[in-house]
Structure formats: C-alpha cells, structure tokens
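Figure 2 data, in text form.
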Amino acid sequence: MENSYKYFENRDCAFYPCHDMEEINCLFCFCPLYEMEECPGDPVYAEHDGKRVRICNDCRYPHDAVNYEDVMELLKERFKY
C-alpha cells in the first residue's frame, strides 16, 4: 500500500473484522474522534438514561485509509493549546 504509515491491519485480532469492510485500517481501533462534539463520521444517536449517546458501530470513517489526513488534522486542532 502506498503511504503504508497511514495503514495498519491486525488480522490476528479477536474482533477482526470489526466492521464489514474489505480493507480495514486498525490504526485508529479506538476512535480518537469519539469525544468530539461534531464527528465527521456517520454515527447514530440514541437516548440512554436521559442522555444523548453516540453509537458508532456502523461508522467506518477512521478505519478508511483515505481519511488518515483528515483524522490527523482534527486531532491537531483538538489538542492545540
């Protein structure tokens, strides 16, 4: 893969594949965008105990290698101080 530093796939993971994708980027296994108020992915929202909860089960945004630069830019903005 071109620019392979942007992509990591762990086929030995007990949860692989966690999303229904032919190629899945495991680099952001635990979504670094979860805490963001406005997520660029495709989350679904539900109410639980009176709170709005984001459900990311079907979101593939951080797992698609073409979104690597966007994820990194969002993280840079989030952690600026």
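Caption note: The chain has one domain: 4-78.
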